[in-house]
Amino acid sequence: MKNIVVKRLLAAGLVVLVLGGVVFAADKGGLFRGKDKMDKVITKMTMDEKISQMIIPAIRTWNEEKVTDLSAAPEVKAALQKHQYGGIILFGANITGNEQVTRLVYDLQENNKQITDVTNHIPYLMPIDEEGGIVIRLSAGTRMTGNMAIGATANAAANAEKTGDLLGEEIAAAGFNADYAPDIDVNNNPNNPVIGTRSFSDDPDKVAELGMAYAKGLSGHNIIATYKHFPGHGDTGTDSHIGLPSVEKTYEEISATELVPFKKAIEGGADMIMTAHITYPLIDEEVTYGDGVTKGYYPATMSKKMIQDILRTDLGFDGVVVTDALEMGAIATAGLVPGAENSVEYHVNIAEKVINAGVDILLLPVDITDAEKVAFYDDYIAGIAAKVKSGEISEKRIDESVKRILLMKEKYGIFRPDGDYGTPEDIEVKAAKSKEIIGSQAHHDAEMQMAREAITLIKNDGILPLSSDKKSIVVLARREDDKVAIGYALEDMKKKGYIGENTEVTLDFYFNSAADVKLNYTDEIKEKISTADVVICFSYASGSSALDKEDPQFIALHNALEDVHAGGGKYVLISENLPYDAAIYQEADGILLAYMGSGLGIDPTDRLNDTGSSAFNANIVAAIETAFGASSPQGKLPVNIPKVEKDSEGNLNFTSEFIYKRGEGISY
């Protein structure tokens, strides 16, 4: 434990001295032991100020209008001045362009300065979910390849750090100071519907290495990294945004897998960790839910066993713990504590359990969307204060959290007890810089190179790379929007001579989202495929959906497989997202893995448009380049791909045997 404390102090840039087993740390303010200058700040704070500092709300909309310009939303400005919140989180609804979001972040901090009757002005923690891959918020930024694609590259650690570096530069340019990334979940469940390609690998040591490298990249731009989702969301079959997942593992089992990346991150000086809304029945203690009858288990976010005993005591973490969003279904609609759904009483009772478990920041209990939600926060903060007054939550517990938050803010220059922040950068200069940096050509070039390194070939019966003398190629995409990026890549291959001048290329889609009948495998498509030399099919796997034999994707891709082979042609599968679908199409002649299916509706040439969406999908473009030989496959599987078999009822399931193993990959 002492070694961990020393490492954390050194990471904070302090001078450390150990005398007689007692740890002393020195900064410009001198030596301190156990207490520091923040104690004086906290002593002067009111209870409202302390509790507010532990809350981060969102402001996506006001009266159903998106909040993108604070000057146009005076009600939001007034609402945020009622309490000095610890921070504000922005989402895609708040962001339309680079200069716009930079001004919004700036205006939020300026509005915070206007709060009156506070003992100390404390700037916001401004976090953003900018993981890269399928989870991004900067619409005019650089998407990057996503974590699993990084894990597939030969230079994975360097690419992870580079990703953190580029994304860190972009979010810092906009004025954010924290990233809710990296995701260090170990994706060891192919049915996982929410983590998937957000994970680097199913190897916990590799996840730890790459997560820390990513965080190092962020730190170069003074961005606080947030390791998530403790104690691990990789082995779940339920999305905690919707329901309450449960992991049936012992403490010994998660210590060997899920906890490994968190342990190493803590030893490396992690500042902030986000919790998961997941129950662990084999580890935790049974409780009675809000109805007074139902027995169950609290999710880790509310569990003293998981946070205080395991994270704080066993793993030695004394940094900031932030919840995953408390508005998520696993918490908000699960009936875990007394109180009607959506009531202040229910949310205050949730907060009591969360705070007493050892958590510091209550992220997004509700969104501030109207006057009713403004009143909610008045009552919510008052309700938590009442629990402190009654002794249900100790003031010491509140002070511990506020101290951690303020120390982290001080470390990153967000808060100075003396109030001296120097001369602020002019907003016009800052906005102009953000436009140059976010989504820059240099960043997109690095993204594209990384995508090419990630593409993995795991099966090739002599079909790849496709020769330019093919007479007929049918490309079967998922949705009509997918034609944008795929069409761009095909046209680029034609221009560069990888697709012959006499080759007929047909691009169509098999999923009709606008019709009652979702399957769009028409007679015309069937005829084209039956007479084609090659059909290239795109599959998107997420959770167990790829195993559903009634799904339009499953039907269309198997029909295409049967039809093209019946006509003597070849079948190439490009796995867009999770690579586990490779096991479902074993009769394919070639299988390429791209590891990301988002952003296909965005034109890759529209990269520098400040008000447009430049966060396109480099992975799919790289996969098409690889299929036609413009690039060679370099990637290696970062996860094991299990076999698929039918059960007694004819349903498909993943087995414990592997058809492709981690580290496999073919080149040409």
Strand portion, in percent? Answer: 5-15%
State the end-to-end CA separation: 50 Å
| Uncertain regions spanning at least 5 consecutive residues | 19-24, 26-34
CATH topology of the largest domain: TIM Barrel
CATH architecture of the largest domain: Alpha-Beta Barrel
Class of the largest domain, according to the CATH hierarchy? Alpha Beta
The CATH superfamily name of the largest domain is Glycoside hydrolase, family 3, N-terminal domain
Q: Count up the helices.
A: 21
Question: Order of strands across the biggest sheet?
Answer: 15-20-19-18-16-17
Q: Which percent bin holds the helix content?
A: 25-40%
Tell me the radius of gyration: 26 Å
- How many discrete domains? 3
Quickly give the structural class. alpha/beta
Approximate shape: globular
Secondary structure: number of strands:
22
Mean pLDDT: 92
How would a textbook summarize the main sheet? 6 strands, mixed
